[in-house]
Description:
globular; EC 2.7.1.169 (chains A, B)
Amino acid sequence: MSRQRATAFAPGHVTAFFSAHPNERPAAAGSRGAGLTLSDGVTVRVSAPGERAASDLTAGLSGAVTTIDGEPGTIGAVDEVLAVLGVAAADGSPPNAGAASRPTVTVDVETDIPIGAGFGVSGAAALGTALAANEAFDRGRSENELIRIAHEAEVSRGTGLGDVVAQARGGIPIRVEPGAPGFGALDGVPSQARVEYVTFGELSTEAVLSGDTTALSAAGERALDRLREDPRLPTLMTAAREFAADADLLVPEVAEAIDAVADATGEAAMAMLGRTVFALGTGLSDAGYDPAVCQTHPSGARLVDGEREP
Amino acid sequence: MSRQRATAFAPGHVTAFFSAHPNERPAAAGSRGAGLTLSDGVTVRVSAPGERAASDLTAGLSGAVTTIDGEPGTIGAVDEVLAVLGVAAADGSPPNAGAASRPTVTVDVETDIPIGAGFGVSGAAALGTALAANEAFDRGRSENELIRIAHEAEVSRGTGLGDVVAQARGGIPIRVEPGAPGFGALDGVPSQARVEYVTFGELSTEAVLSGDTTALSAAGERALDRLREDPRLPTLMTAAREFAADADLLVPEVAEAIDAVADATGEAAMAMLGRTVFALGTGLSDAGYDPAVCQTHPSGARLVDGEREP
């Protein structure tokens, strides 16, 4: 029996502001904007077959068994990535499954960051799955191909527009043009920071993105122009606060926290799209909150290790 | 007196194969090809004024004082980057220099890797200088702008064509199209490896690049086509060995080492352009050499820290 497994890490990503750019082709769809990638992120381990006793877990539509922090779960974009890479078929058959036994592909997702709160967990899981599955099953795709596959999966599922390409770059990415490699274009703010964050609950990306995004996108374009004229971190934070107000996305707890940080002469903004506030340095601590603490992440998503015994 | 300093790290880069693409515009000039970025690299500390007693060091043409591993030295591309960023003027005046005192901008370059041996030290120094000087002197350039400035400096000085963009990306970069951001395009091999290397001496990049590169570039294009069809690390190594032979660049000590590693069932190739052999895993150790050991570097060049007291 072959043993195939690999692990990848993708940083979290808080979007500071964005404009939505739908397109019939998922690779060309995306968002423009900017954000911070975080050292808190998502680790994805892909293994199959025979690596896991999966009998007590439920296989998803793709035939893969996914766990999220040890519990059975489903991430649509992850299933999509596995299907595109031919690692799990749409009919539920894992690849190379013998007639007698049908062992299951397992995807174990571990997150340092809250789900549904604006940290790009689904994008990170999709990108980490693409990198790990490519390695474990020796699919021979290039980095850009894997980024495109994860981006298309996110866009198709309506769970994100710009996290994947940002998480693939790392640092403090500026999404200059929307879309996957070959379509989009990225730049970055050449800086680094300690980042604090507090989450007050979930906010549905799908609900916002499926509504009218005209006013939101106009505000996002203004914020991007401002940052590109002055690609510094304080400018990113100012532009983010203006965007949240102009796009009418601020929720009360987040607005209150941003004000409290400002009163303590710090810099904070809302993570798009989540009931989450993030601050530079010790902004939230200084304002009396008890935040999670991390750093901007110096690199994009990467394979951590891999093993194949064909 | 203001205190301004910042430190940046840029990974080393061994080019496996390349084709040369000169252009009148340095930003559009470059090379196509592939290589490995290394965790051994170059750390650049930019500081001025008043941070260093520079009286016993000699200022270069740009007015900057450069040290290389603690010794006075000059790197043309570094002087060029400082001049473009307005940090040191071509007439030798540092910025904001008072009439009475003319304190000097200091650039301290520390390398883990040999100079002139195919590790892209000049490119790494130029890129590290761009990142650190931008931070120390609050120049407000974006990452892409800083990469372009460092790339243009390398190309103008004739010391490299593709190292800077590779070192800005990290990992195992594929230079799909030549040139700086906005002109070139990159992809990557989604892998990682332990890397061993041995250097037998210097080889002049300028001498090779200023000669007839027609046959070399044809061999480089073939190697790139091969890798893009199969973006895996073993294929990169095979393509690199074929390129070195076809382009007639192999030097005897390197050829001997590559053969010895192959006899020990390892993978080795020549670093372009240097009298250097690099191998995956324990290839050179297994063949009886006493190599330096590092890893592919997961990220591109980054600011390490910065401090400004305006």
